[in-house]
Amino acid sequence: MTHTTGPVERMLKRAAAHERRFNALFEEYFDTLDRTLDAPSFSRYAPECVQLLRELSMRGGKRMRVVLLHEAAALVSAEPAEGLDAAALSIELLHTHGLVHDDLIDDSPTRRGGPSTYYAYRERFPRLPQAALGLTVLAGDLALGLSLRVLLEARLPVALRQAMAEAQTRAAADTFVGQIVDLERDFTGAVPGEDVLHSVADFKSARYSVLAPMRLGLLAAGGQPEAFDHELRRYARLVGICGQMCDDYLDLYGDAEAMGKPTGTDLRDGRHSYTVSALLSVTGGAERAVVESALGDPACTPEVIDAVREIGERHGVADTARAEMRRRAEEASLVAAGWRSRWREEAVTFFEHLPLWSVERNR
Questions:
Q1: If we measure between CA atoms, which residue out of 197, 202, 98 comes closest to residue 140?
Q2: What confidence score (pLDDT) does residue 3 get?
Q3: Domain spanning 224-363: which superfamily?
Q4: Buried-most residue among 4, 40, 78, 252 (CB within 10 A)?
């Protein structure tokens, strides 16, 4: 009997192929950068900075932004587009920039199973905390500069290079605004409403993780993303919201062993995530006091986190979160399904199944 693969299996197979190819491309990029970075010959810090960026960039990661880039190009053409490699490098270098600065903002010691860039510099300069902080900021800035330079130096028509650089610059600016409002959300003290949570998810992640790769992929393949901007924005926003809901849900209800990190991080860090905000909205009295005692307490014990988890389960927070994630994923799938009259079937199917697969795999 012949086994016929389903759409999700085909989607995962294509995603894995994109990931393997890109990892080889990224290694080659850093090999070249090691030899060609324009820095004074006496400098030891500059090559050390590049090495730290390389280690962080190559240490894991699903490369889903790269996958989205290639599948967006496949919406309009089955042929490989010349600008995809430069766009993929730009996307992942921008992501590296974000990881470096995120870990500094959050004071995170680890990332992807190794030391964060900030903590690597802290170990390098144990008696010079300002040097460690400054070099971390500059490492992130270097990754951002490289992400734009790789587009500007690509051997592509000038108009295409400019359009791609503009798309990435806009994505970077939106992400910075997202980081600002993310901090603002947590510092105001009030429980944020749904509109605030959605806006943070949109600006902080959806616009550079989903929308920008799709725009770049369409541009590289000769498409016109501006003609379909409303649909692309709606799809990206829904996927971004759904993804952030998943992350926030797993932070409290996920399997710590499977994730490779402890649960309850958002509570300990005082973050008003989707899940934490839901908990604060449905609890009162002694139960709310338990949640508030954990919120912002770095020394909060696993037992208290377990108690908060049980409170949420009693109030249906987990069930409501799962239902909301699936609803958003279904809405995104319907948006993608509407592209069939215009774009190639195989790639449309990919974008149609991606949101629901993302929810199911994270449960």
A1: 98
A2: 46
A3: Farnesyl Diphosphate Synthase (1.10.600.10)
A4: 252
pLDDT of residue 157: 95
For residue 263, the model assigns a pLDDT of 86
Which tokens belong to 280?
A: 């604060």
1-186 against 224-363: fold identical = yes
CA–CA distance, 183 with 180 (Å, rounded to integer) = 5
Mean pLDDT of each 10-residue bin along the chain, 363 residues long:
67 90 96 91 95 94 93 94 95 96 91 92 96 97 97 95 96 95 88 94 95 97 93 97 94 79 88 95 94 93 94 95 95 97 95 91 62
pLDDT for position 332: 97
Given this model, what pLDDT does residue 189 score? 74
pTM: 0.92
Tell me what pLDDT residue 1 has: 42
**Domain spans in the chain, listed from the N-terminal domain onward:** 1-186, 224-363
Q: What are phi and psi of 115, to 5 degrees?
A: -70, 140
Q: How many CA atoms lie within 13 A of 296 on its CB side?
A: 7
- The full 3-state SS of the chain, as one line of letters, equals CCCCCCHHHHHHHHHHHHHHHHHHHHHHHHHHHHHHCCCCCCCCHHHHHHHHHHHHHHCCCCCHHHHHHHHHHHCCCCCCCCCHHHHHHHHHHHHHHHHHHHHHHHCCCEECCEECHHHHHHHHCCCCHHHHHHHHHHHHHHHHHHHHHHHHCCCCCHHHHHHHHHHHHHHHHHHHHHHHHHHHHHHCCCCCCHHHHHHHHHHHHHHHHHHHHHHHHHHHCCCCHHHHHHHHHHHHHHHHHHHHHHHHHHHHHCCHHHHCCCCCHHHHCCCCCHHHHHHHHHCCHHHHHHHHHHCCCCCCCHHHHHHHHHHHHHCCHHHHHHHHHHHHHHHHHHHHHCCCCCCCHHHHHHHHHHHHHHHHHCC
